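forwarding from the other thread:

> can someone predict this with beta-D-glucopyranose?

sure thing
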Amino acid sequence: MTDIKKLISQMTLEEKASLCSGKDAWRTKPIERLGVPSVMVSDGPHGLRKQAREGAGQNESIEAVCFPCACASAASFDRTLTERLGAALGAEARAEGVAVVLGPAVNHKRSPLCGRNFEYYSEDPFLTGEMAAGFIRGVQKNDVGTALKHFAANNQEFRRLTVSSEVDDAALREIYLANFEGAVKGGKPWTVMGSYNRINGQYAGEAPWLLTGILRGSWGFDGMVMSDWGAVNDRVAGLRAGLELQMPSCGGRTDAQIVEAVQSGKLDAAVLDRAAERVLKMVYKYTDSHKTAFFDKEADHRTAAELAGECAVLLKNTGVLPLDKGKKVVFIGEYANAPRIQGGGSSHINTKNIPGALQAAGEIPGVTFAQGWRLSDKGPDPDLIAEAAEAARGADAAVIFAGLPDACECEGYDRAGLDLPENQNALISAVAEAQPNTAVVLHNGSPVAMPWLDGVGAVLEMYLAGEGSGEAAAALLFGDVNPSGKLPETFPMRLQDTPAYLDFGGDGHTVRYGEGVFTGYRWYDARELPVLFPFGHGLSYTTFEYRGLTLSSEAPAEGEKLTVTLKVKNVGTRWGREAVQLYVRDRATSFRRPEKELKGFAKAALAPGEEKELRFELGDRAFAHWEAGEKRWKISAGEYDVMAAASSRDIRLTASLRHGGSAPLCFAVDENTTLGELLDDPRTHGAVSLLLKVFLPRGKRSDVSDAAITPEMVRAAALSAPLRMVRDMIPAKAYDAAVAQLNRMLAKPAQK
Ligand code: BGC
């Protein structure tokens, strides 16, 4: 192993600074004098976008394999799937001499309109963190690194380079950072990529509390942080905060700034040494490993197709699917021939191997084709629609391959609305009217509106499933593969219902995250809003039953791991997989909490009649919320429900428990500590209730009407009173003695 510390001790100040920015678009700088090599990084996340030629255009990269995008792979609810995907991609990277794959991208889906949602996993941070951790483990098995991106609170494309995400502390910790936390802890990525945007006014890449305090301090990250491409604002501030590598090359401009800052004493030389060490650790982790790998495009194509089949979500099925291989079926629409498999921008993979479902179903007699719609249509084409409806009428079933066009989902800009192109909506309605057995296969990276939903018999959401999308769709439609994906996001009824509707995008300078922690299903549940399809929803060609939910304890204490078990059985006639979800409802916290939050999931593969037991472990975090006032994760003492569910709106089993809660913090009262806070604290509860008993009026007061002042009102007012109000009511000596007594009580940890 290379002795990195020794190498650094031999470097000049300029050499160390040179390591802190790229050599070109994709490589780190070598130091030839000392034999330090240069390594290459490449996009990701759902394929290898290696740009072999300097100055190559956006879509000019080596021919590679396009795996399912994160929007699709998240729908598998299967950690082993993202791990398999990552392992194949990591081997390709190794074979191609790429040291770090720039992914996974784990930003939270705050609004269905974000242009990059197709690259992101979910509207739930737990699901995102787990799926991303699988991806990271898979890639890194090959001794190739990952870059967990974009850290953090980068949830829109509009003005993404400068906009400030104004987000409260609880939402930041519970949602926008929790994605990254799960991925860092579960996957241990070699690197993290900072985001472009600001967070509450400060550039993410200059925030020491984020890059050092939380990432390294709280989560134990021990890798290297790089900038997003062109994200660096103040290089020295960034380095000080913990951003080691600026990408791409800056022509040496900011290296000189670093040198100057060290020479003038503005930057501690130790900060630069530490940065150089972290960059070199990444470089040598790759070059010191001599793993060999092969890029087998054919094998990886087969993997891509297999994975795509495990990601698709059957949203609706009245019995149209699976299709009968002996019947007449008409495939309709451009995406039957040439499916849309990915979005645009830096994740765009250059693949030529994209068989359509029509081609994949080629062996099946009775499958015909009608054009129905074309990407080039300016609006509905009455002739194509009439021809397709006619073909549908003459067949036993029709399948329309629809979805968003490329231009709708791309890095750099957001979507304007939820609608599919008009020509597709008109076509679907017309075909559904002509043929009751109509199925729609969707290709999109984010929710779409379905005005025709009631008229069609089935909807299969393929998402953007990579180059195997067509083969997977054919296998799913004809029942060779049983759908087992579940939605990693809510499909809303209307854009107006979505959590960020009022402030998504913001004014260009700031974007207020007004919904706080109530994002995704947390929002729709709390507002009791109807949805088109809920988070976690997905059908199968078989049926599953749940039973026997048990908890290892009905009164867990802080620090105790709760084991949850339940049984799931395939009571249908086909082999299938079921993604079981475990939600926790907090009934204990005194302020509003989400109705439920995903805290576990597992996918069971079951033959007809087979039953399996699933086990989940719930630790403290499953019950905790971020208590902003105390700046810590806190479990309120009291009731919680643990729910086993087939979707966020299909709860099958519930068990309740009484959690002992987190130990209250030792603290000293001040003048603004309220009586209510002291009553809530077990250490001062007794003393304060005694005080209230003495001072508060009991029963009715004769001098005021009942309606004007009730004992409840007086009690409520007393509980919100800060101690300074008490101070004015009692002698100074008595007040000081009471404060001293309270502080003695609060200085001890609470008895459980
Ligand atoms: C994107 C990153 C990407 C980088 C390099 C940036 O514009 O935000 O996700 O890895 O470019 O292509």
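The CA atoms of residues 198 and 204 lie 5 Å apart. thats all i got for now
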